[in-house]
Amino acid sequence: MDAIKWRQNPQARSGGAKASITFLSADEGKRALHFQQTFPAYSKTPLTRLPRLSEHLGVADIYVKDESYRFGLNAFKVLGGAYAMGRYLAQRLNIPVGDLSIELLQSPDIKERLGEMTFITATDGNHGRGVAWAARQLGHKAVVYMPKGSSLIRLNNIRAAGAEAYITEWNYDECVRFCAEEARKNGWILIQDTAWEDYREIPDWIMQGYSTIALESMEQLEELGADVPTHVFLQAGVGSFAGAIQGAFASVCGEKRPFTVIVEPDKADCLFRSMEADDGLPRHVTGRMDTIMAGLACGEPNPVAWDILRGYSDMFISCPDEVAAKGMRVLGSPLPGDPPVISGESGAVTAGMLFLLLQSEELREARQALGLNGDSRILLISTEGDTDPEHYRAVVWDGRYPSLCRYNT
What value does the mean pLDDT of the chain take? Predict the structure, then answer.
C-alpha cells in the first residue's frame, strides 16, 4: 500500500517576501462574482454543516461547500472558464469589467460585432464541460481535448454541452501543449488554468473566477453566525483552484487567515514534490498519472499558483487513491443527523484526508503541526459531484479502494 506523505511549510507564517495576491483581492473577486450572478442559472452553492461528523472526529465544526450544484454542471470549474471568456470578450469589445453581463454578451449587436469565435481547452472533464457550456451560452464554439483514459461519460457530457470533444493518447500536460499549438495555428482562444511565459492573463482571470467560492463561503458563514474557519483543506491539480482560494482568504483575512492544507494524489503530486525539493522551484510529474482523482491528474504546476501556495499554505500532503475513496464514503453515507454530500473522487479527497488526520495515531505529528483540536472549525470544498456515476457507485457501493494506508513524514 502506498504511503501518505506530508510536509509542513515554514514559509507560510514567516515574515518573508511572498508572491503578490493583489489580483485575488476581495474587489477583484466581487467583479467576477458580479458577472457570474448575471447568468440566470446562478445561485450560491450549499454550505453544508456536519455536526455529527465534527463530534465524532473531535473538532468544533466541519463545513462542506458543495459545488455539485454549480450551474447544473456538477462541478465548480465553469466559474473560472466562464469568467475568463467574459473578460476576454470584454477586452475585445473595450467594455469595462463592471459592465460585463451575460445579457450584454448575448445581445444581437455584440454578437454581430464579434462573429463566431472558437475557444479551445484541455481537460479531464469538468473544466471542458464548463467551457463548452459557457461558449454555448455566449454564442460561440468550443473544442475540447481529453487525456488518455478519460471517462466516456465525461466526454459525452462535454459533447452534450455543445463542444467538439475528443479523447487522445496523451497525458493531461501533453493535451495542454497540443491545444496551445492548435489555438496559435487557427486563431482560436485557449482557455487553460495554467500559466507559462506569454500566457498569464487568461489563467489569472480563471483563478479570479474560482476565488468567488471563497467569497460565497465567507458570506454564508457570516449568515450562519459562524466565524471564519481555522482550517481550510484544498485539493490541487495544477494548483489554480487551490491558489485562488488560498489567495482570496489571505487577501481578506491577512495574518488571521485559516491554516491551509494542500492535498494531491500521489501519482500527480507536483506541488508536494516542489515543496519537498525545498528550493522554491516547481517540479513536474510525468507519465500517465492514472489516479482515480482525474481532476487532479496534472503533472506541471501553474507557476503563479505555486508561488502563492508556497508563500501562504501551511502543509502539503500526497496521498493514494484510497483516501479519496474514504472521503466519498464518509460524505455519501453520513452519521445519523448529518445530510449526505455526493462528492466525486477529486471532490472528496480532502474529507478523506481530514478524517485520517484526526483518527490515525500515525498522523499525530501532522495533526499537531496544524493545531487541529476541539476548537477547530474546518472548511472543505467538494469540487465535484458524481461526474462519473458508474465509478462513484463502484467506490461507494462496492467498496473499491479500501482505506488501508501507511503514513510517512
Answer: 96
